[in-house]
Specification:
Layout (H helix, E strand, L loop, with lengths): L4 H11 L20 E3 L2 E4 L5 E16 L3 E6 L2 E7 L1 H7 L3 E4 L2 E3 L6 E3 L2 E4 L10 E7 L2 E6 L4 E14 L5 E14 L2 E16 L2 E11 L2 E4 L2 E9 L4 E8 L4 E5 L4 E5 L4 E7 L4 E4 L4 E6 L2 E6 L5 E6 L4 E5 L6 H4 L3 H12 L16 E5 L19
Length: 380
């Protein structure tokens, strides 16, 4: 017999401190089947659902398709809940919060302070909810119009692909986050590990790491705030729209490559290591540890600062500026790795069954009991 939702909620919050807000959907009251199903499973969720996923460990891939169903495929064991639009409207918090997170390093512990992120209001209309909780490598395929994705992984990764116009909140303690062909509003945090974004357009994006690099390639941003305690930051071949743009690292380097549209930049490297190179139009003046001026004729204001690293300013992509890249070889290698991290697999049809176990609450569109399986323990 499956445990009631309230018991599952208490256990989950105890295991993952600070996840109560993001996992509010877990308290929704739904009828539970308790049936073990072979992966994948399809859930009819409407055109604009709210999807909440939490994995203890594993690689989480979230992608979109042109169907009004959520498909769950896992190599581990997960539970799922399907809730009504009324329950989503009554229980979904407007602000998502992470508590302070600490990671160990050879130089001592690094702590990310607590932070809250206000997600945009959901579009008018009904929004069903699907919550997935478990362990192991899992792929979630969601409708193209999914309104909100809340995802947390303890140890592993989150790979968000082809998601547009909605909002996302992605947190990994140890591992990485990949954003490919994404647009809209989002929050991305890795306590110990890296964040990579490519070919994406953000109305608002907040990204931060404690120990780990953050890379953006071929991205456009209206409001962007990126910080790292002991990691480097690259915004390579990127563009800006009028709004906030701030990049800050305590111990890492910052590479800022402005593509089309231009920008008005202001940079500070407390170490005095500040390098510039421009192939096109620019009017940037370097004075000691500071640089300011227009790249590409000017545009939105962009600030970059590091306490103990170097700042590289250039137009376009770093690969086209070998002279400035030679001053900080590690940044060149980092940007190359960012490019190689691109992954995208279009979702067009249900996947073939895998060996994972899915236990659900609701009525799946497709289900196939695992032959010979008898559950000895109730679902978590």
């Amino acid at each position: 017999m499956m445990r009631p939702p309230s018991a599952a909620y208490t256990k989950t919050v105890h295991r993952y401190p600070g996840t109560a807000a993001a996992l509010a959907l877990i308290v929704f009251a739904v009828a539970c089947t308790g049936t073990a199903l072979a992966a994948p499973v399809l859930i009819d969720a409407g055109s604009a659902p709210v999807v909440v996923v939490q994995l203890k460990t594993g690689m989480l891939t979230i992608r979109t398709w042109g169907r009004n169903q959520v498909q769950i495929d896992t190599q581990g064991t997960v539970d799922w809940l399907h809730v009504t639009p009324q329950e989503v409207a009554s229980n979904l918090p407007a602000t998502q919060t992470v508590l302070a997170q600490t990671a160990q390093s050879p130089k001592g512990p690094v702590t990310l302070p607590p932070e809250s992120f206000v997600t945009p209001a959901l579009a008018p209309g009904p929004h069903e909810g699907v919550r997935v909780n478990g362990d192991g490598a899992t792929t979630i395929t969601v409708p193209q119009g999914t309104a909100l994705i809340l995802a947390r992984v303890g140890g592993g990764s989150i790979d968000l692909q082809g998601y547009h116009q909605g909002a996302f909140f992605a947190v990994v303690h140890t591992g990485r986050i990949l954003l490919n062909d994404v647009s809209g509003t989002g929050f991305a945090q890795v306590t110990k590990g890296q964040i990579f974004a490519s070919d994406s357009t953000f109305a608002r994006i907040r990204a931060r790491t404690g120990l780990g690099n953050i890379g953006f390639e071929n991205c456009a941003s209206q409001q962007i705030e990126v910080t790292s305690i002991r990691g480097s930051i690259a915004y390579d071949n990127g563009s800006f729209q009028p709004g906030l743009a701030r990049f800050e690292s305590q111990d890492g380097n910052i590479a800022l490559g402005v593509a089309s549209g231009g920008a008005q930049v202001s940079a500070h490297a407390a170490s005095g290591r500040l390098f510039t190179e421009f192939a096109g139009r620019s009017n940037v003046t370097v004075t000691g540890a500071d640089a300011s001026g227009a790249i590409g004729g000017g545009g939105p204001t962009v600030t970059a600062s590091t306490a103990r690293g170097a700042v590289l300013l250039y137009d376009g992509a770093l690969r086209d500026h070998p002279n400035v890249a030679a001053n900080v070889p590690g940044m060149r290698a980092f940007v190359i790795r960012t490019t190689n991290m691109r992954t995208f697999v279009p979702a067009t049809a249900p996947r073939a069954p895998t060996q994972g176990v899915i236990r659900g609450a609701g009525r799946p569109l497709q289900s196939k009991p695992l032959a010979g399986r008898k559950d000895k323990h109730p679902p978590h």
